[in-house]
Design brief:
With 201 residues, the protein is an alpha/beta fold. Helices cover 44% and strands 21% of the residues. It has seven helices and seven strands. A five-stranded parallel sheet has the order 2-1-3-6-7. A two-stranded antiparallel sheet has the order 4-5. β1, α1 and β2 form a beta-alpha-beta unit.
Length: 201
């Protein structure tokens, strides 16, 4: 049994193209019968931006935390435990102003936790989350992949690599706001790539 965590981050609800890619992945995975899925919608979760109170709670020994600090620290701990419990992390990501949604950044801010998912060494950071792979399902109104304007993919690659997830497959659905013909072709190609990835799980 392969355990897959699907993280969605569209603010457009049912109209989000990245959510549509995630749901296509989900339907195919459920048909397989050998895949256990967990869906986390970081928009519905409404994680706040990381602040000093929450960050500081991580630095206090567990037995010395106040009740408020325990509650704050538990957020990161739960999200990290969820990632560790799965074999594959699927990120369904729209592009907003060349970056990732702030809600997804808030999720990453709690996943990248020094001492738990990475540690600093003389040779630089060392990821502590081992044996995982990731799949990026990227939906974009324009065409950016492979150009200097795609700052999103390197950012996600670096964030995942920081915790030790270096195997990343990417599926791009681009040009979705460039006319119906381009949109249909892009979604069909993305669906085909998703089908191949699910079949290989």
């Amino acid at each position: 049994m392969t355990r897959v965590l699907v993280v969605t981050s569209s603010i457009l609800g049912d109209h989000g193209q990245s959510l549509g890619l995630a749901r296509h992945f989900q339907r195919l995975a459920e048909q397989r019968g050998e895949i256990e899925l967990t869906i986390r919608d970081v928009v519905a979760d409404d994680l706040p931006h990381l602040n000093i109170a929450e960050l500081s709670s991580w630095q206090v020994a567990e037995e010395e935390r106040t009740s408020e600090q325990r509650e704050l620290a538990a957020v990161s701990d739960a999200l990290i435990a969820e990632v560790r419990a799965h074999d594959v992390v699927v990120l369904a990501v729209p592009m907003y102003n060349f970056g990732i949604p702030s809600q997804l950044k808030a999720w990453f801010d709690r996943i990248l936790h020094a001492g738990k998912t990475f540690r600093y060494t003389e040779n630089g950071p060392l990821g502590l989350v081992e044996g995982k792979r990731a799949i990026l399902l990227a939906a974009r109104g324009g065409k950016y992949a492979g150009t200097a304007m795609d700052t999103q993919t390197p950012h996600i690659t670096q964030l995942l690599g920081m915790i030790g997830i270096t195997e990343l497959d990417t599926v791009y659905a681009e040009g979705l706001n460039m006319g119906d013909e381009i949109k249909e072709a892009a979604l069909n190609e993305a669906h085909n790539q998703i089908e191949a990835l699910v079949a290989a799980l």
